[in-house]
Amino acid sequence: MNRPTFPHSFVQAPSNDGITEGYMPGFGNDFETEALPGALPQGQNSPQKCNYGIYGEQLSGTAFTAPSHQNERTWCYRIRPSVKHSHRYEKIDLPYWKSAPHIDPDVVSLGQYRWDPVSYGDQALTWLTGMHTMTTAGDVNTQVG
Known about the structure:
Layout: E1 55-60, E2 73-78
């Protein structure tokens, strides 16, 4: 079996005993690899602070309607987060440029958002009456965007 050689600046993580190198047995099992020893958190998936200053993110490819035991997911631990909040956007003076929804010309988007659950109180709702618009893209009236 060919074994990769690592430059002196890299450290190879120790492999688990009993597992044949180069083969991951089973189907639908969970596997883990790490580039540096201790990079993966033990006993939890998403610690508040990861070792080496990396960011833990979950990537899910399963529909939310699947039973939890059938959920397929991948935990990625990255050097940089896939989405990074930036500074508050500055409005530029281009009067003919508009972005949807154009409600108030003095309000500028803050960037990425996270929404809390919408509070409806004790109203009796159906699936349709409980729908709530979070954001839009384009203009419904002109059907552009």
